Amino acid sequence: MKLSDTQVERLRALTYEDYVDELPENEWEAHRTQLLSEVSDAYELHAFAENYNWDGGIEELEWVISNPLCDKATALMIYGLGSPSYYYRKEEKGKEFQEYEIADWAFLKSIERRISNGEFKEGKIAYDPSDFHGIEVFKINSANPGNKLVPEYMKVSTNGEAIENSTI
After folding, report:
1. Rounded to whole angstroms, how far apart are CA atoms 61 and 51?
2. Tens of pLDDT along 107-132?
């Protein structure tokens, strides 16, 4: 699957920080809302999530997860990119979460619950956490001991079509 030129341009506008700087903040919010409303299919939604900078908070990712177009592959990818092993390990050690971490961890746990309950459509998009752009997302080693705590049902691959130009 290849995204259209229009979709790629929309994704660039939504994910490039220098584009945000071109508009006053009050105009950017309205423009961002308009751009998000124009996302036209599960592939574009997936590519948006893949390119999203988590430093911007999880609001847009919550929108992705709640969007009816959201494929199981997209939910699993967002979950993996959210570093659940970090939160599991911190929880296991009884360490206190920072304020922003509480919201992020609740978000990741909500994805776990929804995956467990079968709430996402499956089949449009391919996702493999053992080879996500050459990275094994849940590799268990000394650098990522929390990966052993991530539920197995969150480490699954999905069948479907790869998106050729998803990284913009």
Report:
1. 11
2. 999 999 999 999 998 878 999 998 88
